[in-house]
Design goal:
Layout: E1 5-10, H1 13-24, E2 36-38, E3 51-52, H2 54-57, H3 67-73, E4 78-80, H4 84-98, E5 105-109, E6 112-116, H5 127-142, E7 146-151, H6 154-161, E8 169-171, H7 177-180, H8 194-202, H9 208-212, H10 216-234, E9 251-262, H11 265-285, E10 288-299, E11 304-315, H12 318-332, E12 338-350, H13 359-386
Parallel strand pairs: 2-4, 7-8
Antiparallel strand pairs: 1-6, 1-7, 2-3, 5-6, 9-12, 10-11, 10-12
Helix pairs in contact: 11-12
Length: about 400
């Protein structure tokens, strides 16, 4: 049976939810109908744009840009501070409503989810009818709007939901890819970050179609395994399933939220260095090694993305964890300022589990590994006694 997957995304979620709440309280102004933003301070004009109205977008105001820039573009701009307690409540209400249709729902952020429509499609004349029933129901019940993308897998449904907004239902079935998706700029492909787009453009790959029709071996040569992922997505290939229950995160990780948003790769590398040391230490303390390393970015508009890599050999080595996290960051980062970074390891095994190594590996790596094991053990003993920040790399010290 062919799967039917919906991707449901709230239109300008934070601004819409704030607008609906203010209208309930008697406000005569609907923030969605005037130039308005969530984030930034009206008086000091500090902070960043977390969400924007469609009228604000017409002034060239972008999510993630400094509020001062937004006020220069539109002096009459209205700014409202974010209310994350409200957003969590609105999100819970929305997901509860969606579960009246099916419990096959995977929530991926506060304002978006995947819904597996396959088991209930017989109840409707078409997936489009079902999607419109959901979309209209959300609008009537809650007062805000959603976009719904429909396809046979998650990545195409995600791409479809990003088409024309707001309050729309779009399809992107495999037979529609060539017409609807291939002409789009390569930067609009799901998980095509700034570094990947830069590399692809140097290869004269400017559209999603250019990537889909390219040689996958050439793409992998330049972008490694992430290149194959992007090539698959450009061709509509995705085998990820909708996980209706949040899978227990059996792993070890660490994340940090910054006092001020970071904007550069060098700042990310420094942050990942500290995170990698913490994760590596926790793995050794638990006598575990990891086959999977995941990296998380939370942008300054509170959107969160993550990326992961399977290793050929389980590790607890701080250098490998750091290097992998940085590589994943470069593949996924779209150039926007970010407020949180995280590293998580999973697919854990006992540190004592035997590892298959070649004779060359044994001869070359054994002295190196033994030296590092002794160093890591000494560092771990110091951190256990005096705290995780007792020892830091010289390169991470602030003069």
């Amino acid at each position: 049976m062919t799967s039917i997957i919906f991707h449901i995304d709230v239109n300008s979620a934070f601004l819409s939810w704030t607008a609906v709440e203010e209208l309930k309280k008697g406000s005569e102004i609907d923030l969605r109908t005037i130039p308005a933003i969530i984030g930034g301070d009206q008086k000091s004009r500090r902070g960043v744009v977390v969400a924007k109205s469609i009228p604000a977008k017409k002034y060239g105001i972008r999510t993630g840009e400094p509020a001062a820039n937004a006020f220069r573009k539109c002096p009459d701009l209205i700014s409202v501070p974010p209310d994350h307690t409200l957003y969590k409540r609105k999100s819970t209400e929305l997901m509860g409503y969606l579960r009246t249709f099916t419990d096959q729902i995977e929530q991926v952020s506060v304002d978006e989810c995947y819904l597996d429509f396959t088991a209930i499609k017989h109840q409707y004349s078409s997936p489009e009818e079902g999607a419109n029933r959901i979309k209209n129901g959300v609008k009537e019940r809650f007062g805000f709007t959603v976009n719904i993308g429909i396809s046979t897998n998650k990545v195409l449904a995600k791409m479809a939901s990003d088409f024309e907004k707001p309050d729309k239902v779009h399809t992107l079935y495999p037979e529609e890819i060539q017409k609807k998706m291939w002409p789009l700029p390569i930067g609009e492909l799901y998980m095509a970050g700034k570094a990947s787009v830069h590399t692809l453009k140097k290869l004269e790959i400017n559209t999603i179609g250019d990537l889909a029709l390219s040689d996958p071996e050439l793409i992998c040569l330049h972008l490694k395994s992430h290149g194959k992922t992007l090539w698959n997505f450009a061709n509509g290939i995705c085998d990820s399933k909708v996980h209706s229950e949040k899978q227990e995160a059996k792993g070890i990780g660490k994340s940090t939220t910054f006092k001020e948003d970071l904007e550069t790769l060098e700042e990310a590398k420094e942050a990942f260095s500290h995170l990698a040391e913490g994760v590596s230490g926790r793995l050794r303390k638990a006598d575990q090694k990891a086959y999977m390393i995941s990296m998380e970015i939370k942008y300054n508009d509170f959107k969160t993305v993550s990326h992961q890599k399977q290793l050929g050999k389980a590790t607890d080595d701080v250098k490998i964890i750091h290097q992998t996290a940085v590589e994943l960051f470069q593949e996924l980062w779209d150039g926007r300022a970010f407020r949180l970074l995280g590293i998580r390891t999973s697919k854990l095994v006992a540190a004592s589990e035997p590892v298959q190594m070649s004779l060359f590996d044994l001869e070359i790596q054994k002295p190196f590994d033994e030296k590092h094991k002794k160093l890591n053990k000494a560092l771990e003993e110091i951190r256990t006694k005096f705290g995780e920040d007792a020892v830091v790399k010289a390169g991470n010290m602030i003069s």
